[in-house]
Amino acid sequence: MKYRQFGKTEMKISELSFGTWAIGGAWGQTNDKEALNGLARAMDAGVNFFDTADVYGDGHSEELLAKATKGKENQVYIATKFCRAGDIHDPETYSEKSVTNYVENSLKRLERDQLDLIQIHCPPIEILRDGHVFEVLDKLQQQGKIRHYGVSVETVEEGLLSMENPNVAALQVIFNIFRQKPIKELFPIAQEKNVGILARVPLASGLLTGKFSTNHQFEQDDHRNFNKDGEAFNVGETFAGLPFKKGVELSKKIDWIAEGRGNMTRAALKWILSHDSISSVIPGFKTVKQVEDNLAAIDVKEFSANELEDLRSFYKNDVHKHIRGPY
């Protein structure tokens, strides 16, 4: 495992880490035993960072992480998120009382004394403009309840606005071969301000695995079914904002990335890791096999300069115009 400096924090985190939305819920059927085995396999391979949120399975993914990391609290970092368990548009959700409650509930579920990183979970831009929530987080940091804080954002504009606060240590952004906008507009500022970047939705909700056909049917409780067109939350969180059938079509146009890299999954993750601005990429998983497949991305061959240019042109000419929602 290779480790990267996580922005201005004192943490060095595994360049390939894992998100835990899928094992918490909203990705179809889950199996706790398989999830715990997957977490154990990741840690055995040197993964020392996991991302979660209080709303993933109503706290279930946090509870699974508590079990998996018992006795390893000083070796494994956990990032969680808050705000979406309430009304994200209500300023009261970001009050000192509310945020303290979110933090303490996460601490209880994670069975920890301090949160390594807490992130505001895709708040409306007006909340970021107001800025009061950052003052609240500063106070909680001073109290020792959190080590660092950051923001999970939907758009480049939200990321730039968040970084105007000097104590924002990390941003979590949607970044993959289908979503390249941050490269030019966000990453240079993040590097200048020494802000860590976590790349989420790295496989475009599975599109970049190359495994789907256009007639694939997802389970009822899978967000790739109930949010495929943004019916439940931001459309960009599902298939990176692409209509599913168009995404499948586009993925087939770049199946060449798998050549010499095992498969498209590993190639798509390796492409993200080719960007120095990235602190860690955080794919999800539901099985041990998926964990192992994702881990294999670390050792596959790098992309050549010509291949990187081809993928830039592909995004600009074929993908960009089809992405829906603000980003």
TrEMBL record:
One MF annotation (Gene Ontology) recorded for this entry: oxidoreductase activity
Broad class of enzyme this protein falls into: oxidoreductase
Keywords for this protein: Oxidoreductase
EC numbers on record: 1.1.1.-
InterPro entries xrefs: AKR, AKR2_Oxidoreductase, NAD(P)_OxRdtase_dom_sf, NADP_OxRdtase_dom
Residue span, NADP-dependent oxidoreductase domain: 15-315
Residues annotated as signal peptide: none
Superkingdom in the source lineage: Bacteria
The protein's name: Aldo/keto reductase
Organism of provenance: Gracilibacillus xinjiangensis
Record lineage: Bacteria, Bacillati, Bacillota, Bacilli, Bacillales
